[in-house]
Design a protein that fits this description.
The structure holds two protein chains of two kinds.
Chain A lengths: L1 H12 L2 H21 L3 E3 L3 E3 L11 H11 L2 H17 L2 H7 L4 H34 L5 H5 L3 H24 L2 H25 L2 H8 L3 H8 L4 H8 L14 H24 L3
Antiparallel strand pairs in A: 1-2
Helix pairs in contact in A: 1-6, 2-4, 2-6, 3-6, 3-8, 4-8, 4-9, 6-8, 6-13, 8-9, 8-11, 8-13, 9-10, 11-13
Chain B lengths: L2 E12 L2 E12 L3 E5 L6 H8 L7 E6 L6 H4 L3 E4 L11 H12 L4 H9 L15 H13 L5 E5 L7 H16 L3 E6 L2 H7 L2 E6 L2 E7 L9 E6 L2 H10 L3 E7 L2 E6 L5 H10 L4 E7 L3 H11 L1
Parallel strand pairs in B: 3-7, 3-8, 5-6, 6-7
Antiparallel strand pairs in B: 1-2, 1-4, 8-9, 10-12, 10-13, 11-12
Classes of the chains: A mainly alpha, B alpha/beta.
Chain lengths: 274, 298
């Protein structure tokens, strides 16, 4: 397993473009979160300090940081798609197989890399949230800090799922740009399907079905936190209440898709003549 | 003899097109084999199948004694297919390091093999800056990393300039001299003739011949003759049952033999008849001529 991961890391880290993209996808959210936690003096008129709003309190901070950080996943998605596209355009996939890598090992080396980077990202976000939280949060009891750390798990699963989808599209289409376009098409298709369903039947049922779709199910893992923050400001407004928790079935759906995508990628490669 | 690769009734279809049809042959240790055939005759497809990148339609093949899986066997094989495929943004050294990781070979081999192909001084340049000849030589170095039992080369001199072709051939000869089995696919006949001891001839996916190069067709060779009394020589040849077809091109007469005849005996016969030759060469058909005869017949 380490051998396969090592193999893929060499391919990625020696490539300048993917190195930059990896750097952006990890460091950028890190800095955005860090900067937003600082006290900013806007040209001497007033001081903006987001920490004062209580959004960096435990356990809300877990929800907030993972939600924001996951918006940056697109940068690494480009890396995932291009790491397949490059193998095809350089024909190195053929050479790798001839050199003695099995088709299974080839897919696994890509998948391990995805898991590895998702894990690194999760750990980074976990650490920065913990530091900022410890600095700003009004509650520092261990029990409260540990509450809702399952958002980190959800973040990890979400990244692995999304990148597996990219892996599958990369294998299917072989060209990075088209694979990314497909990702966008899938997004549109999901909304068209949702539109059609809510037109023909009850919109509640339509939304339940939409929550099983690949992209939507990944998005659903971490719901948007704004409503929750608003809720904490106006506790008397009951109509703001919504279900933002991470549920086991949401995780199960995304894990299901992940397995399917990785398996399909393997099947595709196995059937294909290179 | 120890078999390295055995192919039985291998067939590969791409849709309606049959690229390889019912192909069987065995590669034994220590020989240099050539797969000959015009473009599109199924050479690369056959190699693709045994190297696990093309799925077969029917038939089977096995490496070595048949007890190793193809995946494990490929670690003991060195192969280059068509073009040299490497990561353009990595240096030659880094590319080979990656191959070492795949094959599970120690990094110390890299410098040694780069030395063999004469690329040691350019090892830290990016692959994309290499000339085609250098790329091809890097590919050979990469194929040699694991001290393979068999080296498979698919059109290794394709697209190279004469100097590059010469370099590659010298390297192949060096490797063959060390006793490594080589399988060379090519449509360049003189290339195969120069290096191979055995040959498999393919046309449209069908095997026409497999065996030793010098036994490819039963022929007794021919004479190339020049003389000042051309007409007399021609009459003599036409009346001599030892000769079959006679070709005349300007002042050069080519006479094909029906039975063995030594050049000294033939020269004496002519001299006794009062015909003095100015040019006498006895030759066997080159592989090219044999190959054309073989492919035309079928």
């Amino acid at each position: 397993m380490l051998r396969l991961l090592n193999l893929e890391l060499q391919k990625l880290l020696l490539n300048r473009t993917s190195k930059i993209l990896i750097f952006i996808s990890f460091i950028l959210p890190f800095f955005v979160i860090l900067l937003s936690s600082l006290k900013i003096n806007v040209f001497g008129f007033f001081t903006l300090e987001l920490g004062e709003l209580g959004i960096f309190n435990f356990p809300v901070i877990w929800h907030l940081t993972t939600f924001f950080a996951s918006q940056f996943k697109f940068f690494f998605a480009i890396v995932v798609v291009s790491m397949i596209g490059n193998e095809y355009s350089n024909k190195t996939i053929k050479q790798n197989l001839i050199d003695g890598l099995s088709k299974k090992e080839f897919i696994l080396s890509k998948f391990y890399t995805i898991v590895f980077f998702s894990l690194v990202s999760t750990v980074l976000i976990g650490l920065i949230s913990l530091c900022i939280g410890l600095y700003y949060s009004s509650y520092n009891e261990f029990g409260i800090i540990m509450q809702e750390t399952n958002f980190l798990l959800a973040y990890f699963i979400k990244l692995v799922g999304f990148f597996s989808l990219c892996l599958f599209f990369g294998m299917l289409i072989k060209r990075s740009a088209f694979a990314l376009a497909f990702l966008f098409i899938l997004y549109i298709l999901e909304w068209i399907a949702f539109g059609l369903m809510s037109w023909k039947m009850d919109s509640d049922i339509a939304e339940k079905i939409q929550n099983v779709f690949p992209l939507k199910s990944m998005y659903k893992l971490i719901d948007q936190p704004f409503q929750r923050i608003a809720m904490s400001k106006f506790p008397d407004k009951a109509d703001l209440a919504y279900d933002y928790a991470v549920h086991w079935y949401e995780i199960a759906i995304v894990l299901g898709w992940t397995t399917l995508f990785v398996f399909l990628s393997y099947r595709l490669l196995k059937k294909r003549d290179l | 003899m120890e078999p390295i690769l055995t192919i039985n009734n291998l067939t590969k279809k791409f849709g309606y097109l049959t690229a390889v049809k019912d192909l069987s042959f065995t590669i034994n240790k220590g020989n240099v084999y050539g797969i000959l055939g015009p473009n599109g005759s199924g050479k690369s497809t056959t190699l693709g199948v045994v190297l696990n990148v093309v799925n077969k339609t029917s038939g089977d093949f096995h490496w070595f004694d048949g007890n190793t899986t193809t995946h494990d066997a490929l670690k003991k094989v060195g192969a280059i297919i068509e073009r040299p495929n490497f990561y353009p943004y990595m240096s030659g050294y880094q590319n080979l390091k990656l191959v070492c990781k795949i094959k599970g070979v120690d990094y110390s081999k890299i410098e040694e093999k780069l030395e063999v192909v004469g690329l040691l001084d350019r090892k830290d340049s990016k692959f994309k800056t290499y000339s085609l000849g250098m790329k091809q030589r890097l590919a050979i170095a990469s194929a040699l990393l694991n001290e393979p039992e068999i080296l498979i080369l698919d059109e290794p001199t394709n697209g190279l300039d004469p100097q590059g072709i010469h370099q590659i051939r010298e390297i192949i000869k060096q490797i063959a001299a060390k006793g490594t089995t080589i399988l060379l696919a090519s449509h360049l006949l003189d290339e195969v003739e120069k290096v191979c001891s055995h040959v498999v001839v393919l046309r449209k996916g069908v095997k026409l011949y497999s065996g030793r190069v010098d036994e490819m067709i039963s022929s007794h060779g021919f004479f190339e003759l020049k003389c000042n009394k051309q007409d007399e020589l021609r009459t003599f040849l036409e009346n001599n049952p030892a000769f079959g077809k006679i070709k005349i091109q300007d002042d050069l007469i080519t006479a094909f033999l029906n039975e063995p005849l030594k050049s000294e005996d033939f020269n004496k016969q002519l001299f006794d008849k009062g015909i003095v030759l100015t040019h006498l060469v006895q030759r066997k058909e080159s592989l090219e001529e044999q190959f054309l005869q073989l492919t035309d017949k079928n």
